Amino acid sequence: MKRANHFLQFIIHWFEWLLAVIIIFAVFGEGAMMVSALYDYIRTWELTEKFHTFLSDALLYIIGLEIALLLLKRDLILIIDIMIYTIARKVIIQNVAIWEVLLAVLAIAILYLLKLYGATLGQKVRQMAVEEIDEERS
Asked: Would you state the pLDDT for residue 84?
């Protein structure tokens, strides 16, 4: 039973890596096409009309890369980054009321503070673990 569980974890781990690599390649491929489209927008003087779409796509690609990074690193702080980019994208791509924009800004500020607090707390926990290991070795 233990061996089957270990094998299943191994398969899941490699599937996550494969999925992350596929996401990264897809984002880079789409990013190259986005740069080409941006060049066309600039060349034909349509940048003002298409900037909204360009920014929405760029944030979507950033979210994709963050998800791939989350699959590779398994760092819970990255979830907060994904949430921040998702909220920002939603506010940008939709015509929302001013109170929704203010609520989104407040949510992003709270998530940013949580990220800072989580990173600081994580550093303290790691430092305490290192000190404990050093004491055991002494």
From this structure: 93
Rama region for 45: left / alpha / beta (φ>0; ψ in -120 to 50; rest): left
pTM for this predicted structure: 0.75
Asked if 91 contacts 77 with a C-beta cutoff of 8 angstroms, the reply is: no
Q: Report how many domains make up the chain.
A: 1
Residue-number span of the structural domain to which 112 is assigned: 2-137
- Cα separation of 77 and 122, whole Å? 10
Q: Nearest Cα to 85, choosing from 4, 27, 134?
A: 27
Q: Note the pLDDT tens digit of each residue in 85-98.
A: 999 998 888 878 88
**Among the listed residues 94, 69, 93, the one whose alpha carbon sits nearest the alpha carbon of residue 81:** 69
